Amino acid sequence: MKRLLILIVLLLSVLSVYGFDWPVNKVIVTSTFGESRGDHFHTGIDLGGGTQPVFPISSGQVVFQYNSGQYSSTPIGLGNFVVLQHKGNIRSIYCHLKDNSIKTGIKSISKSDQLGITGDTGHSYGKHLHLSIIDFETHSILNPLTLLPPVKDKQPPIIKNVWMKTGDEEKKISGTDTVKPSRVEILAEIYDLREDVSFIWKLAPYMIVLYENGVESARITFDSIVKYSGKLVLAGSKRSFNDIYASDWIYRLGSIELLEGENHLLILVKDFAGNESMRNFFINAGKPK
Ligand SMILES: [Zn+2]
């Protein structure tokens, strides 16, 4: 028992050396990485929780800071923001900070140094902190939720409605459908839920996998975004915003070939805390009952 305790303490100290910490004390994730922002991916996470001090996720160097009071130009979308450089070519960006809350003249910063205060400067609806993490070695924008300490969440994501689309025709899949054998695109309304509120506040899930007759046919993972052929795409699947989103919360899972007979579709969705949801559909092609 004592050995186990020592092992746990050792493990935790190792984790805290390499891991990142939350930039705020009251952690309320109001928006996740990869969510639709109309015509582009949300490239970070949003943290609510009202007015609170903002700290670096790890010690580092101040690379850049923007204070609206400092420049005569109009504030840009990020509002007042700070960019930090950490070990391993990792940069973190803290946006929408309160006017005049950013400490100026600091180069080196430790985890306990306050960077600023949450605000709603720039393109922001209500006070929140937007945090982005970028790996300059691999030129990728990373999902902060894969690097920060785990969020408490017991609610599995929701797989609400699923459709199959051929040409302009869209049909909701009920689970016992009969259609012609054909190639169809599968669309699904999927979202995770905020844990701390009782009303529906949608968040992007972490992973969506589509299986056809027991074989994986498509996978969407919101772990990092890279530039590929001049577009921002999900690193794993190389799919762009338009390849992923039909509209907000409606995902283009992929195309499948419905063969004559019974076709089994399985949609598996995971959130960042590891909660899973699954839905099975059976589509009978070519043999009406
Ligand atoms: Zn944001």
Question: Features of this protein?
Answer:
mainly beta; binds zinc ion; 2 helices; Glucose Permease (Domain IIA); Immunoglobulin-like; six-stranded antiparallel beta sheet; single chain
Structure notes:
With 289 residues, this protein is mostly beta strands. It folds into two domains: 145 residues, Glucose Permease (Domain IIA) (Distorted Sandwich), CATH 2.70.70.10; 128 residues, Immunoglobulins (Immunoglobulin-like, Sandwich), CATH 2.60.40. The chain is 7% helix and 44% strand. The strands form four sheets. Strands 1, 2, 4, 5, 6, 7, 9, 10, 18 and 19 form a ten-stranded antiparallel sheet that branches. A hairpin with a 5-residue loop joins strand 22 and strand 23. The radius of gyration is 22 Å and the shape is elongated. Bound molecules: zinc ion. Zinc ion (ZN) binds next to loops.
Mean pLDDT across residues = 90
> Shape from CA axes?
elongated
Q: Can you list the ligands bound to this structure? A: zinc ion
Give the DSSP E fraction (strand runs of 2 or more residues). 35-45%
Say how many strands there are: 23
Task: Kindly report the name of the CATH homologous superfamily of the largest domain.
Answer: Glucose Permease (Domain IIA)
Unreliable runs: 12-18
Count of helix runs: 2
- CATH class assignment of the largest domain: Mainly Beta
User: Within the CATH hierarchy, at the fold level, what is the topology of the largest domain?
Assistant: Glucose Permease (Domain IIA)
CATH architectural name of the largest domain: Distorted Sandwich
Quaternary structure state of the chains depicted: single chain
What are the secondary-structure elements, in order, as H or E? Answer: HEEEEEEEEEEEEEEEEEEEHEEEE
